[in-house]
Amino acid sequence: MVNPKRKEDDPVGKQVPEQDAGPLTTATDVVRTADLWKLFKLGDEVVKALRGVTVSVRPGEFVCVMGPSGSGKSTLLHLLGGLERPTKGTIELLGQPYAGLTESQLSLLRHQTIGFIFQSFNLIPLLTAVENVELPLMFDDADPGQVKADCRELLTRVGLEHRLDHVPAKMSGGEQQRVAIARALIGGPDLLLADEPTANLDRSNGAAIIRLLTELNHERGMTTVVSTHDASVAEHASRVIEMRDGKVIADSGVVEPDGHGAGSAR
Ligand code: ADP
Ligand code: MG
Asked: Model confidence at 230, in pLDDT bands (50, 70, 90)?
């Protein structure tokens, strides 16, 4: 697997702590927040999308963030992934606080450690499945032949060996989301963030995508955070975090002072 973390001549990369040595390896959580607030100004109105969210995700967890529309799920995932900055509070990825990073450092850290999957797939219409999966590595100095081989292997793993050279318009929604999953995994991320990945799919395609994500979680120990308002997704999660009105109202994975979890769905 091509690993963009191994790049040596990246000018920005030198300012971000190394993945393979140093403080990041001692962190026990993949991502951690403390008292996270996010306010949006809409004209004269202030929307409190997040109101003091403190969560930490441990390596290998499959976390389901549940909550009705407007409860703050997307905002939380965007902040966890460094796509947006919080109004208040801190976020650390593998022990690295986002706050001290410039936009380009944050963008590089995101590129090296996080895979995103969105509700609307977000594929490039003119590119084939293989080309879409290749895209994140386009500016890395990886061996193009190896990248292509890795893309084909990943697409085969997600069940698309017969769709390698198809463009998105020639694929079903479920197939397009599989391409998006392969694209999210191509850089070998430490954290996979999926924001309502089944919302645009019918029930059986949605269930198949969730099954695939749980298999990848088991096979690769891929730390995964999936947001949804579909209660059936929670059945597959090792941990469920429930949100309402920008707050966490329940978390089955909180470790009690006696060292036992509050309960697990698995
Ligand atoms: P969910 O994903 O659970 O549906 P969101 O995180 O998208 O919830 O939204 C939480 C709240 O923040 C909602 O009231 C939403 O309207 C508001 N919100 C989200 N993003 C923005 C934005 N960019 N500008 C203004 N308000 C926003
Ligand atoms: Mg949302």
From this structure: confident
